[in-house]
Design goal:
This protein is α+β, with helices and mostly antiparallel strands. The protein contains twelve helices and nine strands. The structure holds 3,4-dihydroxyphenylalanine. The site of 3,4-dihydroxyphenylalanine has 11 residues, from strand 8 and strand 9.
Length: about 350
């Protein structure tokens, strides 16, 4: 009987040794130590043994069972460790692999142009002011020397909300709003970027909503030459040091005299090309010396103070700078268009 047990033990230990999975090991354990296993069978046959033999064999059976159980346990630990080891190996990260690029958003081309212009004027000591898009008739027109019967106030051109309230058609109302805040005391030096609205049918060069940047300087002894110097610097910084500017007489109700500023074509340098329509010059903005009526209506003494103002359209500037042919691209948010303006 002892030999049989020894045989069983060796068999079991061998099978344990050869097990390569928890499942196999479990099967070996059940096969040898389970109720239907050969050891239990040996135990059952113990009744046939003599009284002396019984305790010896009983003890031996126990030893065999314990040894098999111990080995199962050891093997179990071993297999678990192996499994962890294997998992670790399989899951190792190759830190030398290149990362997956994450697409980062970028500034909208209009925002980029507006910020570039803002930065430029901030460096010249200007402050950035913003005002309401829903504006009163007074600030949008009247305070800018456009009295009630002025043709530029045509209902057809503006989005009126009531008779006295409309969506601002220009950023110029910020001139009056800012001067009022200064209570007749200079200097005033601001630029005002913002959205404006007009009743236009949208096409390649018109949009019912677009942006403007207004500039206003009011102080003692401000002259046309200050305006010219400022605009020259602006043109050179934005379009290249070789740019020259040209001022043409124009008319705006809130400036006198009024001018339109052209820059020498940045594409052909002035020889004539498709960008400047063969004239060598590109129209960029409107400007002028603040009309005395405008100063007076907003609380500044026109005998003591003078000023200049200018207004420009960032869409037009961005279109020229980047060769964009349709203003509607700015508002459609097509990522293929927008991501072309990703800064390095
Ligand atoms: N507000 C004008 C427009 O919308 C642009 C403009 C012209 C603004 C001359 C000014 C200026 O401040 O001096 O057409």
């Amino acid at each position: 009987m002892k030999e049989r047990l020894l045989e069983l033990k060796q068999e079991a230990l061998e099978k344990i040794k050869q097990s390569t999975s928890m499942k196999e090991l479990q099967d070996v354990r059940v096969a040898y130590l389970g109720k239907k296993g050969p050891i239990t069978e040996v135990l059952r046959g113990m009744g046939e043994l003599s009284a002396e033999e019984r305790p010896i064999i009983g003890q031996y059976v126990n030893e065999v069972r314990n040894e098999i159980a111990d080995n199962v346990e050891k093997k179990q630990t071993e297999l678990k460790e192996l499994a962890i080891q294997k998992q670790l190996e399989e899951e190792t990260i190759d830190v030398t692999l290149p990362g997956r690029p994450v697409r980062i958003g970028n500034h909208h081309p209009l925002t980029a142009v507006i910020e570039e212009i803002e930065d430029l004027f901030i460096r010249m000591g200007y402050q950035v002011a913003e005002g309401p898009e829903v504006e009163t008739d007074y600030y949008n027109f009247e305070a800018l020397n456009l009295p009630k019967n002025h043709p530029a106030r045509d209902m057809q051109d503006s989005f009126y909300i009531t008779e006295e309230i409309l969506l601002r058609t220009q950023t110029s109302p910020m001139q009056a709003r800012t001067m009022e805040k200064h209570h007749g005391v200079g200097p005033v030096k601001i630029i005002c970027p913002g959205k404006v609205y007009r009743r236009d049918n949208d096409d390649a060069t018109h949009s019912h909503q677009f942006t403007q940047i207004e500039g206003l300087v009011v102080d003692e002894n401000i002259r046309m030459s200050d305006l010219k110097g400022t605009l020259t610097l602006f043109a050179k910084k934005l379009f290249g040091e070789e740019r020259e500017i040209r001022l043409r007489p124009s008319f705006f109700p809130f400036t006198e005299p009024s001018v339109e500023m052209d820059i020498s074509c940045f594409k052909c340098g002035g020889n004539g090309c498709n960008v400047c329509k063969r004239t060598g010059w590109i129209e960029i903005l409107g400007a002028g010396m603040v009309h005395p009526n405008v100063l007076e209506m907003s609380g500044f003494n026109p005998k003591k103070y003078t000023g200049f103002a200018f207004g420009m359209g960032p869409e037009r500037i961005a279109m020229l700078k980047y060769g964009i042919e349709d203003i509607r691209h700015f508002y459609q948010n097509d990522v293929r268009f927008l991501k072309q303006f990703q800064q390095a």
